[in-house]
Amino acid sequence: MVNFALAFVLSKLTMASFAEQATYLGSTMLLCSFFLLVVPILAKSLQLMVNSVGDYFSASRRLERKLLFYTSKRNRVHRLFYFKKARLLYLNQQQRKILLKKADRKSVSP
Fold first, then answer.
1. Mean pLDDT of 77-100
2. How far apart are CA 33 and CA 50, in angstroms?
């Protein structure tokens, strides 16, 4: 910021080439400071990505995923068994009602 102010003052003093050089120096310093801020952030994010990929493929995480897979598979099978059992109970109850109605009709009619 100081370099830009210096360039403005020098441009008013009719030292054009020196003002241009001060402006160039100021913009270069600004760009360098921007890179000094951005490069460590990019390096840290890259490091975090590499660590998370390594953690994802580690042996303990694989075992954990496998355990979760088998647990969910077991839960799915239990749920399926429960619904099949409920369906069979319902169908047997309906069949029993039909048979009771037929038996009632037989007993009522001569």
1. 96
2. 27
